[in-house]
Automatic annotation (TrEMBL), chain A:
Residues annotated as domain Solute-binding protein family: 78-431
Predominant place of localization: membrane
Organism ancestry: Bacteria, Bacillati, Bacillota, Clostridia, Eubacteriales
Pfam families, alphabetized: SBP_bac_5 (PF00496)
This protein's name: Solute-binding protein family 5 domain-containing protein
GO MF entries: peptide transmembrane transporter activity
Keyword check for DNA damage: no
Topology with respect to the bilayer: Lipid-anchor
Cellular location(s): Cell membrane
Keywords from the UniProt entry: Signal, Transport
GO BP, sorted A to Z: peptide transport
UniProtKB/TrEMBL annotation, chain B:
CDD domains named in the record: TM_PBP2 (cd06261)
Keyword Aminoacyl-tRNA synthetase in annotation: no
Protein localization: Cell membrane
Gene3D superfamilies: MetI-like
Domain ABC transmembrane type-1, chain residue ranges per copy: 99-300
Name the UniProt record assigns to this protein: ABC transporter permease subunit
Length: 534, 312
């Protein structure tokens, strides 16, 4: 009897062990740490990047593999890239691209006008703006391509420089060479090539140096893209030397601002770069109280942004003084940066003049029986929005405005925005250097924009936008845009808050970091070097 | 028995389809659409109406709800759940890849937590009111109260950042498993050991235990052969339920340790309104629950002969 019981116990124990072993072996586990291959390969300069998204889901990763005809700098100045140079006709409708010679795709095939044509046709099929505006794409000779637009598109070069229009290899399409096909193989002309065999879904991807890169091979041997979902885990991974760089693979900063000082004090390099993206509070101008420009202006004057940046972000970033970055090529550089200067007395006076007074002494202003009680919608996931909302609540209370903060899942918040069920809505401005701050045709402040139907709109503004963004002459366009910005700032359509930073931290062995042309661009990784002795 | 199995499986098919359709319809009616969410995630900017329309058109999402549902049902019957709107990969491939990782975590967690919970639960019941009982009750309560994300981060800070013994993220090695498993084992062991203890205590107060004691049987035999055997019903139910929940994905642990399981992927799909992924995953998860519940019911008949007789 005793022996039988013992056998049963041994059997049970054996079953548990078999279960564990079967699980481990059946699912392909080894004793080797997945991050170990890189850590141990000390002679190889492999840059280990932590990324909050899987390689194939993140548009940032594509900038390592694919390149474009043109490139823009952070301010929105365009220059040729795979196109050595380009000419634009006086009417702004015909673009002639003179392509670089000697550029190769990762499969060894040549980049030429024919492949550029296929690439642009593919982009046209997948980009609404190009689909609407491009009339024809013509191969003139092996290294010259002509694109004719049906209507002037101010953002044309911007689109060509974005991940919407990568230069792809015909073989990269499925079926091969069909611009309506599916892009499958990640065969680009970039400084690194992607090998599908190294890709593990939701785990990692390996990219190897492309020795035939036209701009000279990178000093790095490769890049390892490691998926790390949690921002705190990313910082831990950097500090435990499991990754070399964090923050570069996300356009929204994945590094908590509060970690910056600590990382710097431990000897890590932390780059904080402005990319021109501002966090702003958008007003619902279709109904009271924000249908009155005096109320909008009063609120813009009532918030001490400098103090906000100092208190909440330890002066890591800059307070926004105008609607969008003035250093953008088309930015509001002529607008006085003291336009919305903090002045609560002036703000109170403006509210008084607008008829909003505290008639019952409860600290909240009212007008015609309506309290100055404002619904601030915060989409979940909007960076720093929770703390910023609380700060605004406290600042605006001082001038007699009560803010009710409503944090919602981003889709629900977006639907409220579209339905106009908000007074204030926190979000970040777009990051198109050439047309910043939502002022282009069809953008946020244009009256046909259904997404921002309750933002500030006027026939006058539409006319100014139309005039500016259909003007192919650069000087004339810049003058019109300056006038437009002056008008828009006087209307105070939104409350600019602060400049959203791109934060990148790396260990001391990584050298030569230079921020890309926008917050998505990782192509400058090719310029990095690593000192493996550190 | 066979009849019961067939009946349950038949009902299970309806449950799976209803769960899947319900999740689809509820999300379809909820705010937001996949084009807007996916394009916003990709570009970091609000897409224009033209971009949204083009995306919906390309992904065949501009057809009415009924057409989408019927097409999905027709495909699902052939075990084809379509492609993810976000990744453009077949939903079945996405599920299989991630399910492997989830299954690993589940089986290893249970392989540790079940024996540990039995040891704590049985010993605690046998020592009711004693030192071991008090200490184990204190620690199990504490373990149940600790949030998984906090415990996970603490383990990471100690074992990765400070001691540099274990990798803080990743997949594919025994070392990668230690912290996620430890995080899960703490909570699951605590919950299960309390179920075992209370079930044991209930049986230890029964007349047949008094009789057994009167007959001079040893404490060990009374505990294991009499009390534990009769306590197994609720314990098996609890294990089955834990097994199901673990298989459905442990989002917090998967997020903290970047474990490529189904939980985090499914939650992301919900945020993005990636309908094919949500429908397919919900159906497959519901199928796992149906199978686990069926196995639990079959086990009942072996554990407790009375249930078998009743069904006959």
């Amino acid at each position: 009897m005793k022996k039988y019981t013992m056998n049963k116990r041994i059997l049970a124990l054996a079953m548990v062990l078999v279960l564990v072993m079967a699980t481990l072996s059946g699912c392909g586990l080894s004793g080797k740490n997945s991050n170990e291959s890189v850590a141990s390969a000390s002679s190889q300069k492999i840059l280990r990047i932590a990324a909050a998204f899987d390689f194939k889901s993140a548009m940032e990763g594509k900038t390592l593999v694919y390149e474009n005809l043109v490139k823009s700098d952070m301010a929105g100045n365009f220059s040729g890239w795979l196109a050595e140079k380009y000419d634009v006709s006086d009417d702004g409708l015909t673009y002639t691209f003179h392509l670089k010679k000697g550029v190769k795709f990762h499969d060894g095939s040549e980049f030429n006008a024919e492949t550029a044509k296929i690439s642009l046709e593919y982009a046209q099929n997948n980009d609404a703006n190009l689909k609407k505006s491009v009339n024809s794409i013509e191969v003139i000779d092996e290294s010259t391509l002509k694109v004719v637009l049906g209507t002037y598109l101010a953002s044309f070069l911007n689109t060509l420089s974005s991940t919407s229009a990568p230069m792809i290899c015909a073989a990269d399409l499925e079926p091969a060479g069909d611009p309506k096909g599916k892009l499958s193989g990640y065969i680009g002309t970039g400084a690194f090539y992607f090998d599908e065999a190294t890709y593990e879904k939701g785990v990692k991807a390996e990219l190897t140096r492309f020795d035939d890169y036209w701009g000279g091979a990178s000093k790095l041997d490769g890049v390892e893209w490691l998926y790390v979902a949690d921002p705190t885990a990313m910082v831990v991974a950097l500090e435990s030397d499991e990754v070399d760089m964090i923050g570069i693979a996300e356009h929204h900063s994945s590094i908590p601002y509060v970690q910056i000082a600590e990382l710097k004090s431990k000897g890590y390099t932390v780059e904080t770069d402005e990319t021109g993206r501002y966090q702003v509070i958008e007003y619902n101008c279709s109904k009271a109280p924000f249908d009155d420009v005096n109320v909008r202006m009063a609120l813009n004057l009532a918030v001490d942004r400098e103090l906000m940046v100092k208190t909440l972000f330890e002066d890591m970033t800059k307070a926004s003084k105008v609607i969008t970055a003035p250093w953008f090529v088309l930015g509001p550089d002529k607008v006085d940066e003291n336009y919305y200067k903090f002045d609560q007395n002036r703000a109170k006076k403006m509210l008084d003049d607008a008829g909003w007074i505290d008639s019952d002494g409860d600290g909240i202003r009212d007008k015609n029986g309506e309290k100055l009680e404002l619904k601030l919608v915060v989409p979940q996931g909007e960076a720093n929005a929770d703390t910023v909302s609380v700060y605004l609540q406290s600042e605006l209370q001082k001038i007699g405005a009560k803010i009710d903060v409503l944090t919602l899942e981003s889709s629900a918040a977006s639907d409220m925005k579209k339905a106009g069920d908000y007074n204030m809505y926190i979000h970040h401005s777009g990051n198109m250097p050439s047309i910043p701050g939502g002022i282009g045709i069809g953008d946020k402040y244009y009256s046909t924009n259904k997404d921002w139907a309750y933002s500030f709109h006027s026939a006058e503004l539409d006319g100014m936008i139309d005039a500016a963004f259909t003007e192919p002459n650069t000087d004339s366009r810049n003058n019109k845009i300056d006038t437009l910005w002056t008008y828009l700032h006087a209307q105070a359509p939104c409350m600019p808050l602060y400049s959203v930073l791109k934060l990148v931290a790396c260990n001391p062995r990584v050298t030569g970091y230079k921020v890309g042309s926008n917050m998505f661009d990782m192509s400058n990784v090719r310029l990095l070097d690593m000192d493996m002795s550190k | 028995m066979e009849k019961m199995i067939f009946r349950r499986l038949f009902l299970g098919i309806f449950i799976m389809i209803i769960a899947s359709l319900l999740s689809f319809v509820l999300l379809y009616l909820a705010p937001g659409n996949p084009a807007e969410n996916i394009l916003r995630q990709r570009t970091g900017e609000d897409p224009s109406y033209e971009e949204i329309e083009l995306f919906l058109q390309q992904k065949d999402l501009d057809v009415p709800l009924l057409t989408q549902t019927s097409e999905w049902l027709y495909m699902a019957l052939r075990f084809d759940f379509g492609e993810s709107i976000n990744t453009s990969e077949p939903v079945m491939d996405e599920f299989i890849t991630r399910f492997k990782a989830t299954l690993q975590l589940t089986l290893i967690t249970l392989a540790f937590s079940i024996p540990l919970a039995f040891f704590i639960g049985v010993r605690s019941a046998a020592n009711n009111g004693g030192t071991f009982d008090h200490v184990s009750r204190f620690f199990t309560l504490l373990a149940m109260s600790i949030p998984e994300f906090w415990l996970g981060l603490m383990l990471m800070i100690v074992f990765s950042k400070t001691l540099n013994w274990l990798p803080s993220f990743g997949y594919g090695s025994y070392l990668n498993l230690i912290m996620p498993v430890a995080t899960l084992v703490v909570g699951y062991t605590a919950t299960l050991s309390r179920v075992i203890r209370s079930s044991m205590l209930e049986n230890l107060s029964q007349d047949f235990i008094t009789t057994a004691k009167g007959n001079g049987l040893s404490q060990h035999v009374i505990l294991i052969k009499y009390a534990l055997r009769n306590s197994l019903g609720p314990i098996v139910t609890a294990i089955g339920s834990q097994f199901g929940h673990l298989l459905a994905g442990v989002v917090v642990v998967e997020t903290v340790f970047s474990w490529p399981g189904i939980g985090k992927f499914l939650i992301d799909a919900v945020y993005l309104r990636d309908f094919p992924v949500i429908q397919g995953f919900v159906l497959l998860i519901a199928m796992m629950f149906v199978v686990i519940n069926l196995i639990t019911d079959i086990l009942y008949t072996y554990i407790d002969p009375r249930i078998r007789y009743e069904r006959r």
